[in-house]
């Protein structure tokens, strides 16, 4: 037990890219399948396989058999499982409007749906596990997203320019009370016919207006005609990330990824509450229960240099930490792993992982390795761009 290559699951969703993840993995995709997400971790739904010679074993099973050695005592004692899930996400089309529950909400929701006998893979299931899902999205390409509510003045301005007949009274009231939660709940709770009318009118009006919010309303309406979620760009901040810029999404924060490729690191969960712009299960009442209506500008994160060639993103999440590592002959990488398990994705180039007292493991572009908690120290040689997932030392 030391450092092992991982074989990772690809999730194919309609919004995925036919080129980005196959290009990373060096795979041909003649059918043009939508490779949406590459999952690297131990989630029960799609665990990575640990490659040990000719044997391949699900990572969640290996951890369950010996959590102290795989995770390290500190992480095993606190979390009892691998606390994070690393992904590569490639979106050629917008994803749903969504948010993620707090850990208390996840536990309650999971218990409720288990008691109701809803199969965990059922389309109508909201809570597929009992964990929260804060997440960090780090761009590998230009990446666009909607994140968090704008300030009340910006929302009032956008809705004022749209001048929707179905929202005349609601927007007039909002201009006085600036209660975003009340206005958003009103819009999302309308009857289906009223929602379709609002969406159709918003699309028509947005085509006559100048501004990125209105351009996105039009794009979303072309993809999801009649879905009131097309109004989301009038409510949320539009964020455009360059490579290695990131956004952090805390519990209850409303968001939607619009397009691009990125490395996503999150708590080990698949709990998503959707409010629109999708063919998947939508549960607006649950979304409104989970929603945290904070407003203000969206923060763009840039990693902090902690060593030559190594930068780390600071977030409040206790479950994970993402580091960006540029490896070269001039910037070799050595790591004390006394804090516990790590997973490293090689996004470009080639790297050789050499554990103290163990066998070296070679990894090329698209490969991922797990460094078990039993490894005291390792070094990496080669020339590569890598993304390392671990648990913060102070957690």
State the main characteristics.
395 residues; alpha+beta; Jelly Rolls; Phosphomannose Isomerase, domain 2; 3 domains; eleven-stranded antiparallel sheet; nine-stranded antiparallel sheet; 12 helices; 22 strands
List the helices and strands and how they pair.
Elements: E1 3-7, E2 9-17, H1 20-25, E3 35-40, E4 49-52, E5 55-58, H2 59-65, H3 67-71, H4 73-79, E6 84-91, E7 97-99, H5 103-115, E8 135-139, E9 143-149, H6 152-162, H7 168-177, H8 180-188, H9 192-206, H10 212-223, H11 232-235, E10 236-241, E11 245-249, E12 255-267, E13 273-276, H12 284-290, E14 301-302, E15 304-307, E16 310-312, E17 321-327, E18 333-336, E19 342-355, E20 361-364, E21 368-371, E22 377-390
Helix pairs in contact: 9-10
Write a structural description.
There is one protein chain. With 395 residues, this protein is an alpha+beta fold. The chain has three domains: 8-66 and 81-146 and 240-275, Jelly Rolls (Sandwich); 150-235, Orthogonal Bundle (Phosphomannose Isomerase, domain 2), CATH 1.10.441.10; 303-390, Sandwich (Jelly Rolls). It has helices spanning 20-25, 59-65, 67-71, 73-79, 103-115, 152-162, 168-177, 180-188, 192-206, 212-223, 232-235, 284-290; strands at residues 3-7, 9-17, 35-40, 49-52, 55-58, 84-91, 97-99, 135-139, 143-149, 236-241, 245-249, 255-267, 273-276, 301-302, 304-307, 310-312, 321-327, 333-336, 342-355, 361-364, 368-371, 377-390. Strands 1, 4, 5, 15, 16, 17, 18, 19, 20, 21 and 22 form an eleven-stranded antiparallel sheet that branches. Strands 2, 3, 6, 8, 9, 10, 11, 12 and 14 form a nine-stranded antiparallel sheet that branches. The protein has a two-stranded antiparallel ribbon with strand order 7-13. The radius of gyration is 22 Å and the shape is elongated. The model has no long low-confidence stretch (mean pLDDT 95).
């Amino acid at each position: 037990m030391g450092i092992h290559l991982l074989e990772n699951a690809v999730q194919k969703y309609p919004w995925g890219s036919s080129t980005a993840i196959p290009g990373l993995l060096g795979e041909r995709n003649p059918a043009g399948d939508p490779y949406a997400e590459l999952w690297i971790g131990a989630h029960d739904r799609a665990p990575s396989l640990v490659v040990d010679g000719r044997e391949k074993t699900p990572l969640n099973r290996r951890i369950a058999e010996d959590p102290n050695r795989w995770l390290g005592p500190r992480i095993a004692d606190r979390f009892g499982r691998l606390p994070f899930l690393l992904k590569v996400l490639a979106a050629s089309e917008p994803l749903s409007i969504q948010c993620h529950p707090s850990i208390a909400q996840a536990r309650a929701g999971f218990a409720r749906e288990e008691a109701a006998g809803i199969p965990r893979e059922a389309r109508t299931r909201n809570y597929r596990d009992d964990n929260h899902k804060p997440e960090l999205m780090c761009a590998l390409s230009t990446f666009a997203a909607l994140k968090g509510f704008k300030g009340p003045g910006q929302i009032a301005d956008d809705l004022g320019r749209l001048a929707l007949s179905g929202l005349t009274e609601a927007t007039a009231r909002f201009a006085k009370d600036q209660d975003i939660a009340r206005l958003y709940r009103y819009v999302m709770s309308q009857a289906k016919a009223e929602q379709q009318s609002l969406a159709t009118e918003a699309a028509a009006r947005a085509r006559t207006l100048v501004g990125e919010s209105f351009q996105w309303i039009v794009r979303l309406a072309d993809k999801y005609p009649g879905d009131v979620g097309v109004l989301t760009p009038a409510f949320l901040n539009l964020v455009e990330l360059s490579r290695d810029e990131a956004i952090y999404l805390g519990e209850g924060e409303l968001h939607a990824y619009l397009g691009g490729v990125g490395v996503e690191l999150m708590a080990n969960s698949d709990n998503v509450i959707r409010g629109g712009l999708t063919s998947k299960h939508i549960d607006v009442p649950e979304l409104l229960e989970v929603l945290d209506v904070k407003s203000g500008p969206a923060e763009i994160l840039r990693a902090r240099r902690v060593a030559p060639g190594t930068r780390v993103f600071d977030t409040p999440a206790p479950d994970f930490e993402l580091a960006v590592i540029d490896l070269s002959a001039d910037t070799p990488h050595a790591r004390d792993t006394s804090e516990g398990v790590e997973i490293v994705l090689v996004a470009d180039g080639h790297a050789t992982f050499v554990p103290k007292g163990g066998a070296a493991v070679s990894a090329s572009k698209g490969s991922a390795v797990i460094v078990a908690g039993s490894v005291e120290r390792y070094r990496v040689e080669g020339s590569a761009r890598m993304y390392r997932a671990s648990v913060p030392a102070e957690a």
